[in-house]
Amino acid sequence: MVKIDFPVFLLQIITFLIAMPVIWILFIKSLANTLKKRDEYIRESLDKIEKDKQEIEAIKGDYEKKVANIQEQAKDVINKAVAEGEKIKTGLIEEARNEGIKLINEAKIEIENEKKKAIEELKDTIVDISIMAAEKAIKTKINKKNQVDIVSKQIKEIEDIKL
Q: Which of 9, 12, 141, 152 is the most exposed place for a label (fewest CB within 10 A)?
């Protein structure tokens, strides 16, 4: 069996009671302080992370709003450009139509002038032919048969000129 020596036991208890506060002051208290500081550091880090996360979310929200705004502005610019293009297209078509009408009218006027000129030339030619026929009629002895032939020839010549 184990034998307990009372004086040694008492000495061990006294040593323990003296050593315990010293150990507490030197080691455990500083260890507790270190753990407390570490705990505060971790809490501060977590708080900072949470704060940074909230700031990032706010920045992300602002960024998304700005992107949406920029996209809306881009759509507006594109729509304005398309509208302006349509306006220019319509203007060019109208201008081309007006130019075409103008050219057609000028061509009609020119055709009318040429027609009048041709009619005048035809009248002059008819007068010349009539004068020549009259001269031939005077030069030759006119009888009824010759007269019918001359008139027929003149009518035929006039018809040929008209064609």
A: 141
List, for residues 34-54, the tens digit of each pLDDT value.
Answer: 889 999 999 999 999 999 999
Tell me the whole-structure pTM to 2 decimals: 0.42
Proportion of the chain in helix, strand, coil states, percent, rounded to 5:
95, 0, 5
Domains in the chain: boundaries:
19-162
Give the whole-angstrom CA distance, residue 33 versus residue 39. Answer: 10
Residue 24 has pLDDT above 70, yes or no: yes
What are the CA-CA distances from residue 76 to residues 64, 85, 156 (Å)? 18, 14, 76
Cα 62 from Cα 56, distance rounded (Å): 10
Q: Which token pair is 86?
A: 């349509």
Evaluate whether 104 touches 136 at the Cβ level (below 8 Å): no
